[in-house]
Amino acid sequence: MLFGIMLYCIMIFLNRGEEMARLDHLMARRGGGLGVIYGRRRLGKTRLLVEWAAKHDGLYTVADMSSADVQRRYFAQAVSTRLPGFADVEYRDWRSVLSRLAREARLARWRGPIIFDELPYLVLSSPELPSVLQRWNDHEARASRLVVALAGSSQRMMQGLVLSAEDPLYGRAAEILELRPLDPRYLKEAFGRQTPTTLVESYAAWGGVPRYWELAVEQKGTPSVRVERIVLDPLSPLHREPDRILIEEVPSALEVRPVLDAIGAGAHRVSEIAARVGRPATSISRPLERLHGMGLVRREIPFAESEKKSRRSLYKIDDPFFRLWFRVVAPNRGFLAASGRDARISLLNRFWPQLVSLAWEDLCRKRLPFLHPRTPLGELGPWGIASRWWRGKMPEWDIVSESAKGRRLLVGECKWTDRPLNRGSLEKHAREVFSRALPALPESYRDHEIVRALFVPALAPETPRSAHGVILVTNSDVLT
Question: Of 142, 157, 178, which marks where a domain is finished?
Fold first, then answer.
């Protein structure tokens, strides 16, 4: 059990140093202040906040779906662990709870931090709470120099509380943290010594979610074997995971489930998605927007096209685990329930190469701006955000990016192989990349130096790092 707890903490804090530093900076403010922390579930938000509270002798509280009276009672009991006697009275409303909290904290010379986790649950039972918090933060909490953190997993509600000019807490937060998935370069630390292809396969299965990494590391075997044990088996912990994530959103996001099913099955244009779910295309924008806000779906447009004007948008499932689940589990629930282990792995193997290939492309695009300057491609950068490019029947490019100085244009192809690329295969793929027609881009790119690259997981020993004017980029470059 101790090993499991230690492993979980390691997973969560692999790249949470910056977030902890910003929370510590909030705590160091002499006049106190308000922090807002949000992010989709399973990313380690709760553990980060618990560790921060323990570090500064603060108070971590978490809400649930209870009534307002019960919520206040639970909160008062939590406060009494820091301010004895606080729960000895009944509080009729949140204003009286918070007013006394500020007074008692000031007398005790205790500044917090005071953490309200899963704030959306409190707001559901007490819609007036955001306005009450706003007045309390502006006056009593500030006078007591309290450090207060509001947190939640419902991105829709948390963003609405602080990011919209019409909302009560807009402009009040000294720190706003959106927790994102773990950086893929930490896969090496989490999973230990793995081959380059196995690391990419691990990303294809679990993305950057620390909870999934924790479950996977506790298992033995190849990534696909771990997927069978943790996801495909009907009794496994992640077999119904996406449904739980959608249900736990506030308000519930189950109404967007059909859109995820459609995208997972291969519908990527709005018209295709609408046809799959049997709804007018005009009604699809809202669920797509919500899924984008939850970090589950991304909108792709060709490189150099305007986000507002482009008519060639494609919608893809952005999270690798969700992509796997909606491709393999969602349409095959009955089969998985009635089949044994070997049949489940056989089903996964039908989709696995494509899922890993897509994950490899994602990794290459995400990590391109962070390539080390001593790598062959990195020394020609730094590179900006990478996108795909496509148009009609013209050749597609997996990666197109402009250098930060605006002098070079990178065009690249991602080639997934489950074994190191040898010299013969390298020559073949490099020639294809070199001879492929360049993207038809605006005039502003005409004078750029063209850099061609081929991204492959690994190279066989003594294989050169370039061929036919094409630079070879490997997994060791991408995940360093």
Answer: 178
- Kindly report, residue by residue over 241-251, the tens digit of the pLDDT: 999 999 888 77
Residues 6+ apart with CB under 8 A from 159: 38, 293
Q: 329 in a domain, yes or no?
A: yes
- Mark whether 327 and 412 lie in a shared domain: no
Candidates 62, 140, 58, 145; CA nearest to 100 is 140
Question: In the chain, how many H helices and how many E strands?
Answer: 22, 13
Say whether pLDDT at 13 is over 60: no
Q: Is the same domain home to 205 and 168?
A: no
Residues 6+ apart with CB under 8 A from 340: none
* Residues paired with 321 in a beta bridge: none
Alpha helices in 180-221 (DSSP H): 187-191, 196-206, 210-217
**How far apart are alpha carbons 135 and 126 in whole angstroms?**
15
Helices (H), 81-219: 94-108, 119-125, 129-138, 140-143, 155-162, 187-191, 196-206, 210-217
Domain boundary among 128, 146, 178: 178
